[in-house]
Design brief:
Blueprint (H helix, E strand, L loop, with lengths): L5 H17 L2 H29 L2 H7 L1 H9 L5 H13 L7 H31 L8 H12 L2 H5 L2 H24 L6 H17 L5 H13 L6 H32 L10
Helix pairs in contact: 1-5, 2-3, 2-4, 2-6, 2-7, 2-11, 3-10, 4-10, 5-6, 5-12, 6-11, 7-11, 9-10, 9-12, 11-12
Organism: Hydrocarboniclastica marina
Membrane topology: Multi-pass membrane protein
GO molecular function, one term: formate transmembrane transporter activity
Amino acid sequence: MSYLLPNEFVTKLVDAGEAKIYMGTRDTLIRAFMAGATLALAVIFAVTIAVQTGSFLLGALLFPVGFCMLYLMGYDLLTGVFMLVPIAWLDKRPGVTLPRMLRCWGLVGLGNLCGALFIAFFGYMNFSMGGTEAISDVGLKMMAVGESRTVGYQDAGLAGWIVLFLRGVFCNWMVSMGVVGATISTHVSGKIMAMWMPIIVFFYLGFEHSVVNMFLFPIGLMMGADFTLYQYIVWNEIPTVLGNLVGGLTLVGLVLYTTHVRTQAKRVFS
């Protein structure tokens, strides 16, 4: 079959979460590095399209190419393991403990960060001709986004932090649906279609993705954007990571696991 039933693909998700725990440190870091780099390059691709065509919608429609590539290659994003590993823990899979889950998250986050910074350095060099020319229009757009999504939230105070957290929650609702999409078909075309749809929603609506931000804000700082590293960490990355964790775990992982693995007994009518 090209389509797997929910009880079949959710079991595959639990298996995948267990496999993340047992993966070697080297492999975890390499796969996470490549995921961060691939996603960051897709951001450059999408922003370039939006700036050159004047259509952000077109950029959002094409951004998922990066997400599809990295998951077809078996790479890992922090947002994905936020959803996958906890359901393996809830399923009491052998060896899946809380400390090992936290270690997995830490390694994947570190790898994603290194990959995103690698592309951020390339982007800075590319948009400024190695620092010898004025920042290009695409670079200026990234700087403006970084400023609005740090200083803008800070200016709103507590309300800004809450909105940022909620945008992180809704982001990983959609992104984790994309991760699920990679498992619901046995055909590459089916996987791509299922992954593509929710990623468009997250990107076009401007939700906050922790790994995207590991690229977007450092490159802004490299190019001289008007915000600080402190503002990026406190007024974007921390609430975004927390929101991504809550969104992926509750709105996707727990929901699918509860209703398709720990399914409630059927009602009996007399």
